[in-house]
Amino acid sequence: MDFNYSEEQQMLADSLRRFIDTEYTFDKRRKSARGGGSLNRATWAQLAEMGVLGLTVPGEYGGFGESAASQLVVQRELGRGLVLEPVTPTAVMATAVLSAYGSDAQKNDWLPAIAAGERVVTLAYLEPTTRYRPETARASAERKGDGYVLNGNKSLAWHGEAADAFLLTARVCGSNELALFLVPGNAAGLTVHGYPTMDSLRAADLALQNVIVDASAMIGNAADGLPALLHGIDHGIAALCAEAAGAMEKLIEITAEYLRTRQQFGKPLAVFQALQHRMADMLVQKELALSMAYVAAQALDETDPAQRRRMLSAAKVTVAKAGRLVGQQAVQLHGGMGMTDELEVGDYFKRLTMIDPLLGDSDFHVQRYGEVMAA
Prior knowledge:
Layout: H1 7-22, H2 26-34, H3 41-49, H4 68-80, H5 87-101, H6 104-115, E1 121-124, E2 140-144, E3 147-158, E4 165-172, E5 178-184, E6 190-196, E7 202-214, H7 225-261, E8 263-264, E9 267-268, H8 273-299, H9 305-333, H10 345-355, H11 362-374
Parallel strand pairs: 1-4, 2-4
Antiparallel strand pairs: 2-3, 3-7, 4-5, 6-7, 8-9
Helix pairs in contact: 1-4, 4-7, 4-8, 5-6, 5-7, 7-8, 7-9, 7-10, 8-9, 9-10, 9-11
């Protein structure tokens, strides 16, 4: 995989950075977050117009059919701006699942709408008892006539309030198969309870009480459910790594500017060697995270599932560790101001902290890495 930006990728990165700097300002982002929403329809439409939402959607369904390398370019810029909108769950994870496992009808119905910014789709696979092991889900799918009746609970559905549909896991009664269903957000019997997360995003808990779906709502067949879900999660991990690298990059720039302008003992803080060393440590960690984001993107082209998961787990753990260090150091280098809500440094710290538990925390990925190596 060539990680040098092509001319088209550079143009996309430049346009996204201009959009974030001029239109998606920090004040606008904070106002949207405090207003109780993480989906601004006007911003969503602008992202669609720039090609962000259809980047990896196949060309025959209205997208651009770009690779993971181009997705890394986009996620890195979105991370720099702490963009709230559900690009990762919809344009990355759901798109990956539907493109690889969806039926022709599902692709025709949903992929063009995702690319155009008309629909939001997110995954709902976590449950109060599953932790990061989706194969232990207890939600059930009972065959009835030409469809299925779904019952159970889902937790922490990323951007669940804004979703037009959920890619939802349920165990088929009478078998051990964990199927994946495309369930409309307004389905009868489906209750969605949204709430804010620490990093100003939104999540939702779902309650399913006799939710009836047609058999055509199943993604692939019942045996495809878990592989399809893991395929989407793999793409999500790679996107998160790139996003975190972008957030670290911007946070280091903010911190360096603060040290250049803040005076102590008649001198800028930037001249003190101890602080320079801490900034150097932050920069090294950011470069390490960016390198591992490249590894994660490259892993998506790996045909061996075990090798792919090993690479993704290594990247996720390394990026999470780097994000914690960069975020904590940035807060400390800002002194007392770093602990206030007045500066944006706290928002970056919170987002980088939340990168760890999303899509499997470090403990989970260290264990998975060990399991793959042992095998």
